# Entry
Amino acid sequence: MENTIDLAESITAAKCSENLSSVEDAIYVIGGKWKLKIIIVLQESGNIRFNELQRNIRGISARVLSNELKDLELNGFVKRVVHAEQTPVVVEYISTDYSRTLRNVIIALSDWGKMHKRNIRTEAFLSQ
# Structure
């Protein structure tokens, strides 16, 4: 796979700069406190309405959720579906196929987070 980073090979300044730029781009699009949480809930829930989405993400305000959904929609991670044929009009949000390309990244972050938490707990226990 040509897009992987081989840490065993010597890293040139140009390659390092390219990798930093790629990571910076990724963090810009999915970084922050809420975006990955929203993507995860959408991937696990399927079609979901705004209020239900807000209930599933503890602590997020309606204004922040609305802004984050707009950003995610602009970047192709979320699709907003309006059911105008119903009264009242129903709006649902769904994750796109593109957002599902983050699945391995999310799993890797989750695994790393679990490992890190165990590591911190172990170090805290050993230092007592």
Summary: Strands lie at 48-49, 78-83, 90-95. The two ends are 45 Å apart (CA to CA). The chain has a mean pLDDT of 90. The chain is about 55% helix and 10% strand.
